[in-house]
Amino acid sequence: MHDPDKSEVENDCKELLKAFKGVLSWQWDSRFETVLAEFRADNKDSIRTILDRYLSNAWNSSNIGTAPDIVQNIGNRLGKLRAGQLLLTSDPNREIFIYCAWWPWGNGKDISIRIAPCYKKLSDSEKADKIKQFRNWFEI
Questions:
Q1: Are 3 and 16 in contact (CB under 8 A)?
Q2: The pTM is what?
Q3: Are the C-beta atoms of residues 113 and 36 closer than 8 Å to each other?
Q4: What angle do CA 88, 84, 89 make, to 5 degrees?
Q5: Rounded to whole angstroms, how far apart are CA atoms 69 and 71?
Q6: Would strands 110-119 and 96-104 be described as parallel, antiparallel, or unpaired?
Q7: How far is CA 138 from CA 19, 31, 35, 75, 134, in A?
Q8: Helix or strand or coil: residue 10?
Q9: Are the C-beta atoms of 55 and 90 separated by less than 8 Å?
Q10: Positive or negative, the Cα torsion across 117, 7, 28, 18?
């Protein structure tokens, strides 16, 4: 349930956390400044169904070239999309949006996801404050 006193991104993050409660365990990935969860590939359909509620845009190695520049930049920062990997986003035309990197492992049995907000117009110090807030939303 959306709280009108909070930003859309905060509401969506808290709703994602609630939807994944008991399903995924989150940790901090300092390399990419994202929250990280790993799960068995058997659960991919149920995980994807939840993600699709909040992140309705899906980019892969074939269509990332048609994505907005900001989405392409995120993909490049994460190491470029390989076959089977996805970059899911909420509306990338907003000043703040959420993205999720979907990375199947080479063993075919596991998948990791990394989620973070993208703030288009913040200074480095403002971004640091927002990252701290984001970690709090995911309780890590």
A1: no
A2: 0.91
A3: yes
A4: 5
A5: 5
A6: antiparallel
A7: 12, 17, 8, 22, 7
A8: helix
A9: yes
A10: negative
Q: For residues 89 and 58, what is the distance between their CA atoms, to the nearest angstrom?
A: 7
94: which residues sit within 8 A by CB, 6+ positions away?
Answer: 8
**Which residue type sits at 119?**
Y
CA distance 122 to 1: 28
Q: Model confidence over 81-99: pLDDT tens digits? A: 999 999 999 999 999 999 9
d(CA 131, CA 116): 8
End-to-end C-alpha distance for the chain, whole angstroms:
22
In sequence order, the 6+-apart residues with CB closer than 8 A to the CB of 116 are 32, 33, 34, 35, 98, 99, 134
Torsion of CA 45, 14, 54, 69, to 10 degrees: -120
